[in-house]
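cache lookup: miss for this entity combination. No prior model stored, computing from scratch. Input as submitted by user K.M.:
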Amino acid sequence: MRKCYFDHVAANPLHPEALDAMMPYLREEYGNPLSLYPLGTNARSAIESARQSVAELVNVKPATIIFTSSGTEANNFALRGIARAKQAQGKHIIVSKVEHHSVLNSARYLEKNGFVVTYLPVDKHGLVTPESVAAAITDETILVSITHASREIGTIEPIKEISKITKSRSVLLHTDAIATVGNIPVDAADLGADLISMTAHQFYGPKGIGALYVREGLRIVPLIYGGIQEGGRRAGTENVAAIIGMGKAAELAKKEMAVREVHTRKLRDRLVDGVLKVPNVYLTGHPQNRLPHHASFVVEFVEGEAMLLMLSMKGIYSASGSACSSRALKSSPVLLSLGVPTALAQGSIVFSLGTGNSEEDIDYFLQEFPTIISKLREMSPFASGWGKSEEVNKCYTGGS
Amino acid sequence: MKFVEGIKADATADIVYLMCPMHLLRLDELIKTVSPGQVLEILTDYDGALEDIPEWCEKTGNEFIGIEETGDFFKFYVRKKSD
């Protein structure tokens, strides 16, 4: 049976060159990077070289990149570290309703600890408007955190425009760029963000390694105390091999980004066109301004998990909602924030493509998908006797 | 402790919110970047620096000029010794 991996926002396969770069640091170069003999100093130089590659990917100075254990840690670090560092100036933080759990739950944690959080609404495509950011900023606001692109709906947010507002109001801007760094050009200066989260497994690097860019001169309270690793801002013996893997993946991403983008966009566009031919299926997120490798839908009268299982039985691997929430069996808060009715949000499905996907994958998928949906709808208690509900009409005027 | 005000520094390390031994490491790094007679400034909220930095100066022969207190952190001033 054919295997079609369409879940690249959950994890990418490791690039063979990244694996090759990592292997010596799992075998012979096992020294602690703080040690002063060659086994340690070799690991130290390799880390600094990887830092350079990651820095080049987002066009910043290497010293502004702090390696973390994940994108989630980077997001926690940004929110909690800046909140603590800036709390004397104010205790108000702004996030959007389409943030990843690592941002939303960090914000909730801060709320329980005396901070006030505004959760900004989005439009039906998941866009945060710069005007809504401007209106939410108060004298107490210290930080705005808006994702660069949601992994659930693919919408790319207007960070550059938002940064003009945060700068003019002397408020810091963090962006969770986990879905974008390595996939589309991200230039820290151009975006204007003060802090940027990223993770390696979104651009063919290993899991368990991420990074946070912290603008030069910006103070941040560490999440993890201990030794002097990462300039004392993130203690703990470095995951050397993973860092090297991230560095190699960053170097390759910079070099191959344009080619990868053309390839995945072409396949993605075919996938979207094909899926939307199935009746009562709607694209979620922004129709144009979205991640080039990402397509997300809600399918009326079926349930996301059932789709995933049936697709999986055909060798097609996809996701329903975020990688985390697909296991939580609840309607996606991101989809609800777009105004998608609760029942329809249950039929959420997300496809994210990668360099390993081919035209044949799309052919195979488009052949299987309508059949699976028909079968599920035959079983669905909701399919017969229901016309398009008013709620659905309201959300998707004129169909897709 | 010697308190000072308005000292002009030739190089600064801002390590506010970072813990021991970052104050000593940055001091050691920074001293190599300046010329004899030039002044270093270390910004830190780490209390241990109150003992460590004067002691480091004594050991290394650099001049401990003094500290300035701000609301949230200390500014330490050190003059690099002559060759």
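stored under new cache key. The longest strand of chain A covers residues 294-299.
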